Amino acid sequence: MTVSLSSYPPQQIAVLEAAYDAAVARKRLRFAAGLVVFVALLIVASLGAEVAPKTFVEKIGNFVGYFDRILNLDTGSRVWTDPAEWFWGWQKWLKLLAETLLLSYVGTTIGAVGAFGLNFFAATNLSPHPGLRFVVRRVMEFCRTVPSIVFALIFVIAFGLGPMAGILAIAIHSIGALGKLYSEQAENIDMKPLEGVRSTGASWMSSIRFAVLPQVMPGFASYTLLRFEINVREASVMGFVGAGGIGQELVVAVRKFFYSDVSAILLMIIVTVFIIDILTGWLRGRLFGVEQRV
What we know:
By secondary structure, the protein is mostly helical.
């Protein structure tokens, strides 16, 4: 197959090259202007937040030094030279870690159920009334805007120390976060099955059941597993305000300067999160297949 290329006069080629160079120059100018504005805003924000690079440079040694201290036993030797001494309280810590996992599981389950019930009213293409959609969206925004640790502190004051406060805090925050993700998933569905079901005279609930749920359930399950992983870390922090779990033991170790205990508890939390990440990834693969995960 022969391909012929048109031949243009040098004058026309020069005009095209000039137009191309001008377009490239304008694009580069816009990029440079945007970069200058970004840097300027970053500087202004840093000044407003009282960011002090000098202090960071001067104090970074304290940060590194603390991690060096938590890797030492009371005898002065490194923690890995005596694992039995390092993890002396592993039985108690495992029980508290299990409490953290159960706290996260129950809170995530309650939050997922609440988000599942609200998200269809918040989706633009599914909500039966604009006013209802507005109210539901504001409720979910409130749930996810207030930090979960603030909710935990409020519930600790109301219900006392213990896992109940952590469960409620995680549940409320999960309703807001998962509700947002669920509703966005619902807004991106293929509308043809929904229109087909509606054309038969089906009710709003039946339309959701037969046309929407088959499309969104894989995404809902994937988001829920991811939220559970996040909530495990959230639950570990909530112990700082007395909401139960391993976090309470960690904050005691930090306040009493039990350096080796701090590193042991942190290591147990990190390993647990790693395991959960691997298991949830495997479970998503089993449920939806590798193709959908990618």
